[in-house]
Amino acid sequence: MGKLSKLSRLLIAVLFILLAVALVASISNSQNNNLGSTVRYIEALVFDNGYNDATTADEGAMSQQPFGRGFSASNPQNLGNTSDPNYVISFPEDHGAHESFDIEWWYLTANLQDEVGNIYGLQWTLFRFRNPNNEAREQGQTNVSTGSEPFNSDDTIKTPSSDWNNQHIYMAHASVHSASQHWFSEKFARGNVGNAGAETTPFKLFIDDWQWQSPTPGLLPATLAFNARLISDSTNISGISYLDVQLNLSNTGPYILQGQNGYSIKSANGKHASHYYSAPFIQVDGKFTMSDELLLSRVSEQYAPMKKSTEDETKTDDLLKHIAVKGNAWFDQEWTSQLFDQATLGWDWLSLHLDNGDKIMAFRMRLQDQPDYITGTYIQADGSTATLMPSDLSMDIIEFTELSNKKLPLQWALSIASKGLNIKIETSKDDQWNPALVAYYEGNVVVSGTHTGRGFLELTGY
């Protein structure tokens, strides 16, 4: 065989480059399809748009729709376990995951301040979603039918079982607000493969490097570590793009079983319900570290080849801003298969720390073609509780505010006649919207009137 001409060698080189590009594109497309499938499933779970495991033309498109669960409404056999009014919640066992239920969350909100009195609102949440559409794959079967007909065992082939073929998807949100800034990040992960979940002995909630860690089988005491990116800064301060959070959490009161001994009814007909408990007596202290991630990475690269001196470490530390914080936090854990359906429009939720030491949880469920269902719990400073039925409290909107092309109820009036309570609740700043895949409002509020205090407001479905 003779020598190849320069043109032939060039053509061969171009061919190899094109093959390499095609291979990389194929791998990337596969990964994007897997992520897209997860994203579409979570959208279907929370928004009434159904679930389809096929690739769509626009992966990123998501319109805000009323909360619902379209695929479950049409496939009721896929629903997970039903909340049971006779179930007895016990600890520490029920701090863990309840994987036979369709959705579960571990939810922390904290009202914090620094040493000079600046106020911060913090939220950290780990969600678990059960994907019933993955059940056949979990059993080692793959549907080879190309049509839309129901699954049939004659149309399957056996595939090797894998830990990745399981029903559980985790999502986490981290949010911190100051008066002028908002840090927010979200994460997604497959469950039961080691990078997200809830573990016991000792207790741990985690998704990647975001971790809630207790030294005991119990929920508390614990440390919480996460980070978030700056997404909004009304003061245009340069150099602060990243927030690292390290918190110590200690419990100073009892766990509170919401509703009827932890069975929380969300609608007048009782069809919407969950298992729900709270830890509203959490004391927090810790540290925020603000930094410019880009500058830090450049400094790290600059000094990586050589041994760092004390002077080098000082240069790095100059790029960081450390803030000590402390305050009160409220933790919720809730699990259900009966919260998202075609009738669910959304909810409005309040957790309040009153200055006299008392706590309040109030909840308004918005349902299609049904009256709003309002319930709550009044918690004395000593931990004693009174369940509030719809006739025991009023929760009224004072004013709507235009935000992100939405009208949101950011001022509320709450009255509980039996407690002599008549208060106004308003947000500490208007824009506390979480621009997540599942977007919602989660904001720091101030309480005034017959009682004073601080707390959190959550708005979904707007």
TrEMBL record:
Annotated ranges, domain AttH: 103-337
Keywords: Hydrolase
Protein name: Putative secreted hydrolase
Alphabetical list of InterPro entries matching this protein: AttH-like_dom_sf (IPR023374), AttH_dom (IPR010791)
GO MF term set: hydrolase activity
Protein origin, superkingdom: Bacteria
Pfam family, one: CrtC
